[in-house]
Structure formats: structure tokens, C-alpha cells
Please model this.
Amino acid sequence: MDIKDFCFGADRIPPPLSVIAAAKVASLTLPPPSTVTSASDSACLPTFLFSNGLKLQGTYVLLRYIGRVANLYGQDPFESSQIDQWLEYTPVLSVGSEFENACNYIDNYLQTRTFLVGYSLSIADIAIWSGLAGTGLRWESCRKSKKFPNVVRWFNSIFDEYSEALNEVMSTYVGKKGPVKPAAAKPKGQQVVSGDNPDKGKASSKPSSEVDLPGAEIGKVCLRFAPEPSGYLHIGHSKAALLNQYFAQRYQGRLIVRFDDTNPSKESNEFVDNLLKDIDTLGIKYETITHTSDYFPQLMEMAENLICQGKAYVDDTPREQMQKERMDGIESKCRSNSVAENLKLWKEMIAGSERGLQCCVRGKLDMQDPNKSLRDPVYYRCNPVPHHRIGSKYKIYPTYDFACPFVDSVEGITHALRSSEYHDRNAQYDRIQADMGLRKVHLYEFSRLNMVYTILSKRHLRWFVENGKVDGWDDARFPTVQGIVRRGLKVEALVQFILEQGASKNLNLMEWDKLWTINKKIIDPVCPRHTAVIEEHRVPLTLTDGPKQPFVRIIPRHKKHEGAGEKATTYTNRIWVDHADAELISVNEEITLMDWGNAIVKEIEKDQNGKVTHLSGVLHLEGSVKTTKLKLTWLPDTSELVNLTLVDFDYLITKKKLEEGESFQDVLNPFTKKETAALGDSNMRNLKRGEILQLERKGYFRCDAPFVRPSKPVVLFAIPDGRQATSLK
Model:
């Protein structure tokens, strides 16, 4: 149903910027807007006239229509209702006296968010964005004043991603109110934005995740995320999972989670359970769960049919010899076996006999093809190990290369997303699917996510686990989802990091600093503040005029976020400070004790090695904190302090990127974990496992082991902030 006409009462109301902007962003074709001059109220409303004579009227009615067509109206009823709330709030921006109050409200709301609703752009963002932009100089003035940094960040981010569409709207409809100039953005690199686009050098105005899937139709797209249950989900898999969900939502299609369980030697129910846990952690919404093992009978039947058609054969060539012959383009001696001989050996394989265990099934493709993946790949191999899901029913299992094109087609997958490491095997996928006589599935390739100083091979990660180099798949040094979340990464940061990269085919080596910087922006505005002093060589400071009896004040855990709650701080005449801080103090120097006030250090005692062992001083609470050089954290000398273990981590390898053929075992980092004993304020008894906090002047931490008893330290994992050096000495 096409939109035949779009009109609004230009003489009586301003143009509906949000409708026009939403249509441009969604690449929805609108006819040139016309105006009406009728005196009736309804004629003044923005209107879509459709080719069948029907019409829709009203700014928010049209916005919701565009939202539903372009999948910009939330991913579930709750998100749609949240969007409705924002649409109802939008008119406040046009009320002059309420404008700054509205900006302040939105600024606070966006402290820890990238979008107004959920994890992707919606018509709520477009409506509020247009409401701000439509005020012209009023909003420009606020942007320059830097009064609303979170709103400006969000506003510029949207403009940057959709600059071509939004520039056109602004120049056409907001010119008289003052130009809307985006803050200077870093130039984006050239990106490949579509399947086989010959114009590879051209940049797109869309974010790289908004490339088009070939042949995709709204409502008819079906994708799959197909992990092998041989390890935990890591950050590279996360990119595949989130991109599949992104395209499923964008095209209002379906997403299937399929376990590619074709190798019982590596797979287990533990991995299945934890993969599902990780998928849930990422917020992946799928229609159903399937298993490649569901299709074992059909796969065996297909293999036998290909043998009968002369498109596959059974080969007993030893593995190493077979690999060499494939590399050299030499045909196997078994390639010319008769169908009868092949079927006989196939039955031996099914039975798992001694003879059968010597054999495999290979596709008869092209041993001379320059693409070595087409040189008679293996389709089936014997494996007597019981399958974690179906036991010992089978002695033979299909390879990924054989099973994947079959199951993709029969499950109704329309587009299979594969990382660029599979590029050379795409031709193999298409050829095998054609030999099977099955419906062709579109392949879409995206770049594999590579991180500096990081191993993403599950086989290599398994080595670390099995050799005791880490404490398990959820170790905080691991790039697994559970590992990085245990380290202190918020899932929102991971989602934002991955979707910012999008579905580009450009190979990239990403820095962890960027991810941790995003994470800091999310946790800093909300995480509570606490105090710790390193236990070793800690120095007492005696305040001779300090309180004779300890007293307690209740202060905020976060001065700018009431939601963090309150904490009790005890004030005494003897306190602890870090040895490193004590070494910086001079006699008669005025210092600031954070959350208390100023003090003047009168005496400094040192041992025979020159190390400070004791400080004495007096309070000077009327002193100005602006005049002191040292602002120190401190703890009261009481029995209520909590024992802490602060844990820092480093990369598992010492080289940014392994070269081809280079062994990770040659560049192992010998020192990847450092534990430091400390004392913490008494409020840290109440920390819960997983809670994120900031230790003043020491950084961000995640509570890995909460308080149980005084003799058992609370364990805090240090969270990188994108700036700190990670090398441990």
C-alpha cells in the first residue's frame, strides 16, 4: 500500500519534522509534501493519503505507522509503551518556559543510555531529536553552553549516524530558525556496506550495521545463530549473535538458535547450558532452539543419496596423506571406486566396525580448483565417542561443512551470516547446497572481531582451562562473555561496542580500551563510592585535637546519584592513610581528608630505612580544600574495617597480534594476576556479589566474593577504565 500524498497545514502549523525525519531515516519514500488551507482542524493535521483511498492523520499516528513499517517501534509491547510515553512528552520541548527543565530531565535519563528505549534507534529518539532541532537557536545555545552533556552526546550521535537524511530535513524545514550544525565528528573510514558492491571505496551515510541483506523482504527473513557447544560464548561470538538479532528485528523476521552439535569429542551439556546462559545475558530474543543432531537421520540419507549419484565417495586414505593430496591437488585412489564399493564401506562406517573406522565420506567436487576448500572436502567421519544429547546411537557424524548448508536450507534460513574467516568456504557452501538439490541460502559476510592481546580460538582457550592457566571458562582474564562480565563489564557497553562496528566487512583489530571507556561512561554516573587503604605499610595519622569519642555521619554513597543510597562514615582521632600518600607529605603541610576537611601535619616519624611510620597533626576544618595539594582518602582506626583482596589482571599473551603460524604458547604472559591486601570501610560488609563500586582514588571494582566472616576477605576485581596501564609487575 503506497503513500500517494503527504500533506500538512503549513499556513497554520509548523511542518511535522519528526514525521519527515523518521521517513528519511527509515528510507521510506514520501511524495513531496503539499499544503492545505482548509479551515477545518482535521485538514491541518499531517496526513498520509494512500493509493487505495485510505488515510491516516496526526503526527504521532504517522510516526507510529513509520515505526511499525521500519521496525522503529520497539521490540516488544513494553518497549512500544515506553516509546508512547516519550511521544507524549515531546510537546513539552515547544513550551519556552519548560524547555530547559525538559532538557535537564532528558539529560539525567540519558546518563547511562545510548538510546531512549532499548538498545537501538526508535521513533522516540527521532521525535525528541526533532523536537530539540526544531527549536533552532534555543537548542543551539544550550549545546554550546555544555549544560546538558548527555543530551548533546546522544543528539550528535544520531546526527552523525544519519547525517545525510537529517541534514536534508534540517536545511529544508529549519533554515529560518537557525541552522543545526553538528559538533565536529571524527571522519569515518571507508566502509564496505553491501554484499558484492563494486564501489567498495564509497562510504555510506548509514551506520555500518545498516547494510542491506541481499534479497531480504520485510517479514520474510529468517536467520540463525549457530554456536558449537564446545566452549563458552566469547566476545567474537557475541558480535555474530547481536548482528543476527539486529537483522531479524530490522526485517521483522525470525531468529533461530541452533546448536551445531556434530563433534561429540568436544561437546557437552555443560557448554549447552552455559551458551544458553550467555545468550540470555546478551538479551538475544529468539523464536526457537534447534540442534543439528535433530537432523542426523536426514543428513545420513542425503549422504547416501550423494554416494548413489556419484557425487560423494568413501575414502580410507590416512589423514595426513589426505591433507597433503588436497594441498597438492592429487586425486585419492578411492575417488574412482564404484557406487557399490562406496555403499559397502558406508555400511561399515555406520556400524562403526574396524574397517569403517578407517574411512570417511568425501564430496566429489574438483581436486584442481584453486580454492582448496572445493578439493573433495570431508562430509562424514567416524567417531565412537557417545554424543552428549543422543548417546551411542550413532558411530558417524557429519562435518560442519556438510551439515550447515543442509540444515540452513531445510530450516528455512533465508540469510546465513558468516564471519570473514569463512570467506574461502563460501563457494564450497554454495556448491554442496546445489549438489544436494536444496533451496539456495544467501550468505552474508561480516568481519571477524579481533581484539589486541587476545586469543579467541576455542581450542586454544580450552588449553588454558585444561592446563590450569586460568580458573575456568568464566575467568576474568578470559574473553568469554562470562569472563568479561565477571571482570566488571556491563552488557550494555558490550552491545553498544559491537553495534557501533556493525556488519562491515573490513577486518579490524580492536583495542580493549575503547570497550572499557564505554563501560566507564555507563558505571561512573551510578556506582557507589567507598574507601580502601592498602594494608602493607599503612600509616597511622593521630589527630591530637580530633574527636575524643568516635562519631558517625550518614553521607551519600554517590554525591550526584541519590539512587546509590547512603553509607555510615566514622570519625576518630586516629586514622589510617596509604603509605604512598604519607611519603608525599611534608612537615606543617596542610592536607585535605576527603569527606571530612583539612588537617595540618605537624610531625612525621620514619624508620631506619627512611620509610614513614607515623604522622601527627591537628584538624583545620575551616581551611579551604582549594588551597591544598594533597586530597587523601583515609579510614578510621576501628575494629569494624573490612579485610579486602584487590585483584588486578593482565592479558594472557604479551603480543598484540599473533602472526600466521605463530604459537600462542611462545608469547604467554607469565604474570597475569596480582592480589593486594587492603582494608575497606565498614559499609563494604553489605556489598553483594556482582555489585560495581568505585574505591576513591583507586579505580572501579566489581565484588566477586562478598563478606562472609571477618577472617575471609571480600574479593574485588579491578575494572579497567580505558586509561590505566594493565601491565603487572
Notes: Residues 35-43, 175-209 have pLDDT under 50 and may be disordered. The first strand starts at residue 3 and ends at 8.
